[in-house]
């Protein structure tokens, strides 16, 4: 049990790092998506990411592991990520960054249900309460029953299920495939899907700033994929998943700094609820770890 607690703590750190990087990737992608079609964004971002990733695999001596991208779970995860890319880029082109990021925080709620119902994890009432609070926070941002609801939010809502599939597969793959090789499968799938989409979309010239934003997004995407894989290895889903909520804070910061986006009062309230829920989960996990340590003495 002590090993699980230690893994949980490390998984939480990896999750927060992954969320910071995913939000940065989304910010760069949003900038490019203002002038470029989805397929072009996916191919250019993926190409930059691929060069960076191949260099990392060479440096780490893991190029010999790359055939593992064809294992069915690794490939399926890659295409789940590619589908997620299409949905999120479509949403980012139409609605504020903070709103997109907040909507997809339905994922921890769904993961906790899966952890409790199919994986046999013990989920106490406090965890359920924190996750439910996060879900309420999402509703505050989406505002589904009001005139403020944007149909483009449906892209982000659908993306929650591709993210769920992606992260569940990351957990099932385990340590037999290096994390950067798992990331490689996602990047290759994204480029392939973007290339197929180019048959139906007209590409536009990209200026230097747009290319730089896609380069930065590609680097952040690779590193985010690496840390998200590590976050789920040997950890409890119900303990680690709520730390996905940290991406909301990063999204609000990036949205304001780069796009001067300021969420409305309801969205701020929803984001605050999710952040408090995540901090409470961190507090509860710290108590569980301390009690387990004391009990083991």
Total strands: 0
Mean pLDDT across all residues, rounded? Answer: 83
Helix content: over 70%
Helix vs. strand class: mainly alpha
Main sheet properties:
none
Number of helices: 12
Q: In one word, what is the shape? A: globular
Q: How many whole angstroms does the radius of gyration measure? A: 19 Å
Domain count, please report it: 1
Spatial separation of the terminal alpha carbons: 13 Å
Order of helices and strands: HHHHHHHHHHHH
- Please mark out the parts with pLDDT under 50 across 5 or more consecutive residues, or reply none: none
- Per DSSP, what share of the residues sits in E-state strands of 2 or more residues? under 5%
Describe this structure in words.
The chain is an all-alpha fold and 297 residues long. It has one domain (2-295). Helices cover 76% and strands 0% of the residues. It contains 12 helices and no strands. It has helices at residues 2-33, 38-60, 72-92, 97-103, 106-117, 125-142, 153-173, 179-197, 208-231, 237-240, 246-259, 265-295. Helix 1 (2-33) packs parallel to helix 11, helix 1 runs antiparallel to helix 12 (265-295) and helix 4 (97-103) crosses helix 7 (153-173). The longest helix is centred in the N-terminal third of the chain and has 32 residues, at 2-33. 52% of the residues are buried. The model has no long low-confidence stretch (mean pLDDT 83).
